[in-house]
Amino acid sequence: MIKIHGLILSPFVRKVMAVAELKSIPYKNVKVFPGTRTAEFLSMSPLGKIPALEDGELRISDSAVICEYLDEKYTDTSIRPASVEARAQSRWFEVYGDSKLTELCIGGIYFERFAKKLLKLGDTDEEKVALTIEKLLPPQQDYLERVLPAEGFLLGDFGLADICVAGPFLSAAHVGYRPDAGRWPKLARFIEQVRKHEAMAELIDDEETLFNSLTK
Ligand SMILES: N[C@@H](CCC(=O)N[C@@H](CS)C(=O)NCC(=O)O)C(=O)O
Protein backbone atom coordinates (compact mmCIF):
# COMPACT_ATOMS: atom_id res chain seq x y z
CA MET A 1 0.00 0.00 0.00
CA ILE A 2 1.29 3.49 -0.75
CA LYS A 3 2.31 5.68 2.20
CA ILE A 4 1.62 9.42 2.30
CA HIS A 5 3.95 11.09 4.78
CA GLY A 6 2.85 14.35 6.36
CA LEU A 7 0.23 15.93 8.58
CA ILE A 8 -3.25 16.42 7.11
CA LEU A 9 -3.28 19.95 8.54
CA SER A 10 -0.97 20.89 5.64
CA PRO A 11 -3.09 21.74 2.58
CA PHE A 12 -0.45 20.06 0.40
CA VAL A 13 -0.75 16.81 2.33
CA ARG A 14 -4.56 17.01 2.26
CA LYS A 15 -4.34 17.59 -1.52
CA VAL A 16 -2.50 14.30 -2.04
CA MET A 17 -4.84 12.44 0.32
CA ALA A 18 -7.87 13.87 -1.48
CA VAL A 19 -6.47 12.67 -4.82
CA ALA A 20 -5.94 9.20 -3.35
CA GLU A 21 -9.55 9.28 -2.05
CA LEU A 22 -10.91 10.49 -5.40
CA LYS A 23 -9.08 7.72 -7.23
CA SER A 24 -9.96 5.10 -4.55
CA ILE A 25 -6.28 4.28 -4.01
CA PRO A 26 -5.71 2.56 -0.64
CA TYR A 27 -3.10 4.45 1.37
CA LYS A 28 -1.63 4.82 4.82
CA ASN A 29 -1.00 8.29 6.22
CA VAL A 30 2.27 8.38 8.18
CA LYS A 31 2.07 11.42 10.45
CA VAL A 32 5.12 13.63 9.94
CA PHE A 33 5.15 17.15 11.37
CA PRO A 34 6.33 20.07 9.20
CA GLY A 35 9.97 20.82 9.96
CA THR A 36 10.94 17.15 10.44
CA ARG A 37 14.55 16.67 9.33
CA THR A 38 15.34 13.02 10.12
CA ALA A 39 17.64 11.24 7.67
CA GLU A 40 14.80 8.87 6.76
CA PHE A 41 12.41 11.69 5.94
CA LEU A 42 15.05 13.66 4.03
CA SER A 43 15.67 10.59 1.88
CA MET A 44 12.06 10.94 0.68
CA SER A 45 11.84 14.73 0.72
CA PRO A 46 15.29 16.32 0.25
CA LEU A 47 13.92 19.80 1.10
CA GLY A 48 12.29 18.44 4.25
CA LYS A 49 8.81 19.49 3.16
CA ILE A 50 5.61 17.52 3.59
CA PRO A 51 4.11 15.64 1.79
CA ALA A 52 6.31 12.76 0.64
CA LEU A 53 5.16 9.55 -1.00
CA GLU A 54 6.47 6.02 -0.64
CA ASP A 55 5.33 3.48 -3.18
CA GLY A 56 7.46 0.33 -3.09
CA GLU A 57 11.02 1.46 -3.83
CA LEU A 58 9.87 4.86 -5.08
CA ARG A 59 10.20 7.91 -2.81
CA ILE A 60 9.10 11.29 -4.11
CA SER A 61 8.06 14.63 -2.69
CA ASP A 62 6.08 17.70 -3.76
CA SER A 63 2.31 17.46 -3.99
CA ALA A 64 2.16 18.34 -7.70
CA VAL A 65 4.71 15.63 -8.57
CA ILE A 66 2.95 13.09 -6.36
CA CYS A 67 -0.52 13.86 -7.76
CA GLU A 68 0.73 13.63 -11.35
CA TYR A 69 2.40 10.30 -10.54
CA LEU A 70 -0.76 8.90 -8.95
CA ASP A 71 -2.82 10.07 -11.92
CA GLU A 72 -0.51 8.37 -14.40
CA LYS A 73 -0.29 5.16 -12.41
CA TYR A 74 -3.94 4.77 -11.38
CA THR A 75 -5.93 5.62 -14.49
CA ASP A 76 -9.53 4.65 -13.63
CA THR A 77 -10.60 8.12 -12.44
CA SER A 78 -8.71 11.13 -13.73
CA ILE A 79 -7.96 14.17 -11.62
CA ARG A 80 -8.07 16.35 -14.73
CA PRO A 81 -10.75 16.93 -17.36
CA ALA A 82 -10.61 15.26 -20.79
CA SER A 83 -9.82 18.00 -23.31
CA VAL A 84 -6.33 19.42 -23.78
CA GLU A 85 -7.69 22.94 -23.23
CA ALA A 86 -9.48 22.05 -19.99
CA ARG A 87 -6.40 20.18 -18.77
CA ALA A 88 -4.36 23.34 -19.27
CA GLN A 89 -6.95 25.27 -17.24
CA SER A 90 -6.79 22.61 -14.54
CA ARG A 91 -2.99 23.04 -14.34
CA TRP A 92 -3.46 26.81 -14.02
CA PHE A 93 -5.89 26.39 -11.12
CA GLU A 94 -3.48 23.99 -9.43
CA VAL A 95 -0.58 26.45 -9.70
CA TYR A 96 -2.81 29.36 -8.67
CA GLY A 97 -4.20 27.55 -5.61
CA ASP A 98 -0.80 26.23 -4.56
CA SER A 99 0.90 29.62 -4.94
CA LYS A 100 -1.20 32.80 -4.60
CA LEU A 101 -4.13 31.39 -2.62
CA THR A 102 -1.78 29.45 -0.35
CA GLU A 103 0.37 32.53 0.22
CA LEU A 104 -2.73 34.50 1.31
CA CYS A 105 -5.00 31.98 3.06
CA ILE A 106 -2.22 29.92 4.62
CA GLY A 107 0.66 32.39 5.01
CA GLY A 108 -1.53 35.41 5.76
CA ILE A 109 -4.20 33.81 7.96
CA TYR A 110 -3.83 30.12 8.91
CA PHE A 111 -0.13 30.30 9.72
CA GLU A 112 -0.57 33.54 11.67
CA ARG A 113 -3.58 32.40 13.68
CA PHE A 114 -2.63 28.77 14.24
CA ALA A 115 0.63 27.25 12.92
CA LYS A 116 2.83 30.05 14.25
CA LYS A 117 1.69 29.40 17.80
CA LEU A 118 1.87 25.62 17.36
CA LEU A 119 5.47 25.86 16.14
CA LYS A 120 6.29 28.42 18.87
CA LEU A 121 7.28 31.06 16.34
CA GLY A 122 5.64 33.98 18.11
CA ASP A 123 2.31 35.78 18.29
CA THR A 124 -0.20 36.40 15.53
CA ASP A 125 0.70 39.41 13.39
CA GLU A 126 -2.77 40.97 13.47
CA GLU A 127 -1.81 43.68 10.96
CA LYS A 128 -0.76 41.08 8.43
CA VAL A 129 -3.99 39.15 8.93
CA ALA A 130 -6.08 42.32 8.52
CA LEU A 131 -4.17 43.37 5.39
CA THR A 132 -4.65 39.90 3.91
CA ILE A 133 -8.39 39.80 4.61
CA GLU A 134 -9.20 43.42 3.77
CA LYS A 135 -6.87 44.21 0.87
CA LEU A 136 -5.03 41.21 -0.57
CA LEU A 137 -7.69 38.50 -0.74
CA PRO A 138 -10.64 40.50 -2.16
CA PRO A 139 -9.16 40.89 -5.70
CA GLN A 140 -8.45 37.15 -5.80
CA GLN A 141 -11.96 36.39 -4.57
CA ASP A 142 -13.38 38.77 -7.21
CA TYR A 143 -11.45 36.84 -9.86
CA LEU A 144 -12.80 33.52 -8.58
CA GLU A 145 -16.33 34.92 -8.45
CA ARG A 146 -15.97 35.78 -12.17
CA VAL A 147 -14.67 32.38 -13.29
CA LEU A 148 -16.68 30.05 -11.06
CA PRO A 149 -19.90 28.55 -12.47
CA ALA A 150 -23.18 29.22 -10.68
CA GLU A 151 -23.37 25.50 -9.91
CA GLY A 152 -20.97 22.59 -9.81
CA PHE A 153 -17.18 22.57 -9.93
CA LEU A 154 -14.58 24.60 -11.80
CA LEU A 155 -14.15 22.42 -14.86
CA GLY A 156 -17.09 20.00 -14.88
CA ASP A 157 -16.40 16.92 -12.78
CA PHE A 158 -14.74 17.35 -9.38
CA GLY A 159 -10.96 17.21 -9.77
CA LEU A 160 -7.57 18.54 -8.79
CA ALA A 161 -8.43 22.12 -9.77
CA ASP A 162 -11.22 22.16 -7.16
CA ILE A 163 -9.04 20.56 -4.49
CA CYS A 164 -6.31 23.18 -5.04
CA VAL A 165 -8.54 26.25 -5.23
CA ALA A 166 -10.89 25.41 -2.35
CA GLY A 167 -8.11 23.87 -0.22
CA PRO A 168 -6.50 27.04 1.13
CA PHE A 169 -9.96 28.45 2.00
CA LEU A 170 -10.88 25.24 3.83
CA SER A 171 -7.76 25.65 5.96
CA ALA A 172 -8.55 29.32 6.63
CA ALA A 173 -12.05 28.27 7.74
CA HIS A 174 -10.46 26.32 10.64
CA VAL A 175 -9.22 29.63 12.02
CA GLY A 176 -12.45 31.52 11.43
CA TYR A 177 -12.03 33.04 7.98
CA ARG A 178 -14.67 32.49 5.29
CA PRO A 179 -15.28 34.74 2.27
CA ASP A 180 -18.44 36.80 2.79
CA ALA A 181 -21.25 34.87 1.03
CA GLY A 182 -23.12 38.13 0.39
CA ARG A 183 -20.24 39.59 -1.63
CA TRP A 184 -18.82 36.34 -3.12
CA PRO A 185 -21.83 33.97 -3.32
CA LYS A 186 -20.43 31.65 -5.99
CA LEU A 187 -17.13 31.28 -4.17
CA ALA A 188 -18.80 30.61 -0.80
CA ARG A 189 -21.08 27.99 -2.40
CA PHE A 190 -18.15 26.38 -4.23
CA ILE A 191 -16.00 26.04 -1.08
CA GLU A 192 -18.92 24.42 0.76
CA GLN A 193 -19.59 22.05 -2.16
CA VAL A 194 -15.94 20.95 -2.27
CA ARG A 195 -15.99 20.44 1.51
CA LYS A 196 -18.98 18.11 1.16
CA HIS A 197 -17.59 16.07 -1.74
CA GLU A 198 -17.13 12.40 -0.87
CA ALA A 199 -13.38 12.63 -1.50
CA MET A 200 -13.08 15.53 0.96
CA ALA A 201 -15.71 15.35 3.71
CA GLU A 202 -14.07 12.73 5.92
CA LEU A 203 -10.63 14.27 5.47
CA ILE A 204 -11.87 17.66 6.59
CA ASP A 205 -13.67 16.10 9.57
CA ASP A 206 -10.45 14.32 10.60
CA GLU A 207 -8.55 17.53 10.11
CA GLU A 208 -10.96 19.43 12.34
CA THR A 209 -10.60 16.80 15.06
CA LEU A 210 -6.80 17.09 14.91
CA PHE A 211 -6.98 20.89 14.78
CA ASN A 212 -9.24 20.97 17.85
CA SER A 213 -6.96 18.61 19.76
CA LEU A 214 -3.95 20.83 19.03
CA THR A 215 -5.69 24.08 19.94
CA LYS A 216 -7.29 22.91 23.22
N1 LIG B 1 5.58 22.71 -3.19
C1 LIG B 1 5.44 21.83 -2.04
C2 LIG B 1 5.18 22.67 -0.81
C3 LIG B 1 5.15 21.83 0.46
C4 LIG B 1 5.23 22.70 1.71
O1 LIG B 1 5.46 23.91 1.65
N2 LIG B 1 5.03 22.07 2.87
C5 LIG B 1 5.13 22.79 4.14
C6 LIG B 1 3.92 22.50 5.02
S1 LIG B 1 2.43 23.20 4.37
C7 LIG B 1 6.34 22.27 4.91
O2 LIG B 1 6.63 21.09 4.92
N3 LIG B 1 7.03 23.19 5.59
C8 LIG B 1 8.10 22.84 6.49
C9 LIG B 1 9.44 23.29 6.05
O3 LIG B 1 9.55 23.92 4.97
O4 LIG B 1 10.37 23.00 6.77
C10 LIG B 1 4.31 20.84 -2.32
O5 LIG B 1 3.43 21.13 -3.12
O6 LIG B 1 4.35 19.74 -1.74
Description:
The structure is a single chain. The chain is of the alpha+beta class and 216 residues long. It has two domains: 2-73, Glutaredoxin (3-Layer(aba) Sandwich), CATH 3.40.30.10; 84-215, Glutathione S-transferase Yfyf (Class Pi), Chain A, domain 2 (Up-down Bundle), CATH 1.20.1050.10. Helix content is 59%, strand content 7%. It has helices at residues 11-22, 39-44, 63-73, 84-118, 126-147, 160-174, 185-196, 201-215, and strands spanning 2-5, 27-30, 52-55, 58-61. It has a four-stranded mixed β-sheet. Helix 4 packs antiparallel against helix 5, helix 4 packs parallel to helix 6 and helix 6 (160-174) packs across helix 7 (185-196). The mean pLDDT is 96. The structure holds glutathione. The site of glutathione has 12 residues, from helix 3.
